[in-house]
Amino acid sequence: MNKITAVKGTRDFYPQEMAVLNWIMEGWRCCSVRNGFEQYDSPIFEYLQLYTQKSGEEIAGQLFSLTDRGGRQLAIRPETTPSLARMINQRISALPRPIKWFSISRLCRAERPQRGRLREFFQWNIDIIGDDSPVSDAECIYTAVDYLRSVGLTSKDIVVKFSSRSLLAALLKDMGFTENQLDGIYSLLDKRSKLPPETFAALAKDTVPDALLREKLLACLDSFNPQGSQDPLEKLSALAQAKDTKPYVASDSDPVQLEVAKLEQLKQYLQIMGIYEYCQFDINIVRGLAYYTGPVFEIFDRGSQLRALCGGGRYDNLLAGLGGPQVPATGFGMGDVVLEILLEEKKLLRSFNNELHFFVAYAGVEFFDKALQLTCRLRAQGYSAAFDYKRLALGKQLKQAAQQNARFAVIVGQETVEADEITLKDMTKTTQKTVPLPQFLADPLAFLDK
Ligand code: HAM
Known about the structure:
It is built from 18 helices and 16 strands. It is of the alpha+beta class. The strands form 3 sheets. Strands 1-5-6-11-10-9-7-8 form an 8-stranded mixed β-sheet. It has a 5-stranded mixed β-sheet with strand order 13-12-14-15-16, with helices on both faces. Helix 1 runs antiparallel to helix 5 (134-150), helix 6 runs antiparallel to helix 11 (254-272) and helix 7 packs antiparallel against helix 8. Bound molecules: histidyl-adenosine monophosphate.
């Protein structure tokens, strides 16, 4: 018979891998709580339309969709932002604002599996709904950096590349692009760093057939390349103010100035929050999802060897687009896959092992029942405790205790029956001692620490 394997692009989490994932997720949870976010979750599948309506072509092409028995078109969630918007819309008048929520969700995207991109992954989402100022954008970026810093990544390891969709829109309109062309251009530019130059050039030709306009566009992006000697945001700001910035910024440059000023405000908040050393304005950051409207960002490893480990931005029209009121929103998603690769490379990966407090061993099969009873008493007091099923010799039981990383072995034997005493063995040392059982049970850990 054929052996059935796991599906390509999915992962099995054996306890060792699960311990790593738990450590990552616990870090996300703690970071969310200390930054003032409350947890929510949404269903694993939604109506297909929720994603085809506003997320854009890229996500729509990556959906795992299904039809239920009633003929309803459904899809497994590829992201949580549309579900969040749907949930907020349902209760908008009852929720005090700003709404600061987080989720840690298992998602599926029918992507081509590659390094850093799988078909099933976990994603941490942080979102602030109901605030339109750059402070909330800055707080989201701060929260992402706060987590990455807490696991040991420094500004030498990672960079937050930020830009703004509305700034790009203003620049594009100055160049002569129409409103209708903008979505196509965002999607084109988002692919720039992911495609070989020739493939990108061909795609650019398809998207912007006018050669002059296409050159203007690419020259504009190149002129604000972060690799240059001047901070590209300062350069952009100087150009926008000088008003002699043709062909990139035409005479009526006010929308550009306005957008540059907003981005400078964001920069100021990031500086005040003490994380600007992690950040870099990069006009090439556009984001693949269709619903972003303002500041956008992605976090990369400094060496740009890996795909983005985090991405987000402002999406002020999504709630309204899904039938709710016009409420501003901003947030990000961070996946576990690239994060784990990077932490592994930097030797920062840890695991979250649930410690086994006690392994209760028996010095002879006749004490098995007593050992079982003691195990359950310890568990009832909230300690983790294990025992051997197989009635092995004491030496082998102690080996098992070591394999299971037990902190202490409790040995039940003749002295337990005769004098109500047990032997305690500290598994990290070679020492052991005999102690009265009632005293031990009164406060097991405190007793052992002495
Ligand atoms: P996204 O850029 O599609 O944004 O995904 C965010 C992050 O999720 C990525 O940077 C990556 O770490 C991870 N990720 C995405 N796809 C995969 C995959 N196939 N395999 C492994 N990891 C992946 C969003 O999902 C937005 N909804 C985020 C957001 C929240 N924007 C505002 N609020």
